[in-house]
Structure formats: C-alpha cells, structure tokens
Design brief:
Number of domains: 2
Helix content: 40-55%
CATH class of the largest domain: Mainly Alpha
Largest sheet: 4 strands, mixed
Radius of gyration: 17 Å
CATH architecture of the largest domain: Up-down Bundle
Strand order of the largest sheet: 2-1-3-4
Shape: globular
Order of helices and strands: HHHHHEEEHE
Structural class: alpha+beta
CATH superfamily of the largest domain: dinb family like domain
C-alpha cells in the first residue's frame, strides 16, 4: 500500500473512532449482538485497551503490554476511549515502514495502521447496530477488510486454535467493485457474491445469508474468521 493509502487509513481511523465514540453517550449496558455476551461497555473497553496495546507495540516494540481497564463510572468511559484513540493516532502518524512489534508480518507501523482501521470500522458498526442501526461500510475499506481476514486474521485464528482450517476453497466476489478472493485449498467448490460490505460482514460476523448469491457449488458460508467477543475475556484487547 502506498504512503497515500496509509494516510487515508489514518483519516478513516479518525472518522471511525469518532463515530464509535459517539455511541458511548448511550446506555453502556446495551448488549452487542455480534460480540457474544458483551455489552457496549465491554466493547468500549476492548477498543480502548486495544488502542493502547497497539500504541505500545509501536513505541516499545512489545506485545505483552496489559492496558489498564476502563473507568468504573459510565460517564467517564467515552473520555477514556477518546484519549486512547488520540494516543494511538499520534503514534501511528509516521512512516508506515517504521519497525514495530506485530503478531503477523509485516512487522511495521503500516500493519497497525491497517489493523486498527479495520478493527475500529467493524466495531463501530457493531456499536451502532446495537443501538438500532449501523451505518454502511465504505466499499474500499470493506474490501480490504475481507483481504485482511484471509491474509492475516484467519491464519492467526487457526494457529491459536480458535478456528479450523478450511477443508475446501470458497471464492468471494464483491459485485460492486469487481474484486474477488479465494480462501482454502484447491479449486473453489463454491462462489459467493455480494457487495464488498456484505462480504466483509460474511467473513467477520455471524450473519444472515440475505444479500449473497451462490453462483455454484455449496451454499454455506464459512464461520467468522475473527473472534466476535464471546471467545475472549470481557474487555480483552488480545487477538
């Protein structure tokens, strides 16, 4: 990705962080349907601690940092999250080629620019959806979210024992932007088409099959390739 592309990721990270923050003005006890048994407070803690964990991965080049928990008082949670987002953005506003600790290649700041933009995008939607309706995902960022699942997150979940290796290959096709991805061994046994946004939901969230078309072969979507909250401790930033 070009330096221009990484600059765009930082702008998007700022926008998505602000949109997530706005959700924290609401009742934090609201359950978040796509994140296991988490509430909005749990999700806020996951995001704030994750921001600080990623920031330390860049500044100290380590992955064992344990960020402090969110404040106990609900009215203080939004400010706590905002401070974590500001801290992260300040750290990430540098050359993407700078060395950093990461849990997957490349071991650079650029990894975290992409990872935190994707993390914030999907959890912004989770938070808004929990409150009554998530705003759409932009097609370009959604498409990169699909790519990141297949090139980074799915292999990590398999390595950590949270997911099974695919037995067959599936091809996902984003009909609105003309991109496709194949995941799994061998020739695809099915092709599943939909918008980039629907494809991103399909590989990151337990999702209804509406909005997809099966071109041929088997009709089942694979299970989500990222943890959705229920498999992690409350507020955990760890992937």
């Amino acid at each position: 990705m070009s330096a221009h592309g990484f600059a765009s990721l930082l702008r998007l990270l700022r926008q998505e962080s602000d949109a997530f923050s706005a959700c924290l003005e609401h009742d934090l006890s609201v359950p978040v349907p796509h994140c296991g048994d988490w509430t909005l407070r749990d999700l806020a803690e996951h995001m704030g601690r994750g921001n600080r964990w990623a920031a330390v991965a860049v500044t100290d080049k380590r992955g064992d940092y344990e960020a402090p928990p969110a404040p106990r008082v609900d009215t203080e949670v939004r400010g706590w999250f905002d401070a974590s987002a500001d801290e992260l953005l300040a750290v990430l506003d540098t050359d993407p080629a700078v060395e950093a600790w990461t849990f997957s290649p490349p071991h650079t700041v650029g990894f975290w620019q992409r990872r935190r933009a994707q993390e914030t995008l999907i959890h912004r939607w989770d938070a808004q959806n929990a409150l009554g309706g998530g705003l759409p995902l932009g097609p370009e960022l959604a498409a990169d979210g699909v790519a990141e699942v297949f090139d980074t997150m799915a292999p990590r979940q398999i390595a950590r024992g949270r997911a099974e290796p695919p037995r067959h290959a599936l091809r996902f096709r984003a009909t609105d932007i003309g991109q496709s991805w194949t995941y799994g061994p061998g020739e695809p046994v099915a092709e599943i088409s939909g918008t980039a946004e629907r494809s991103c939901y399909g590989v990151t969230r337990p999702t209804p099959r509406e909005g997809f078309q099966r071109a041929r072969g088997r009709s089942a979507l694979p299970p989500p390739a990222q943890p959705t909250g229920g498999g992690l401790p409350r507020g955990s930033p760890a992937w």
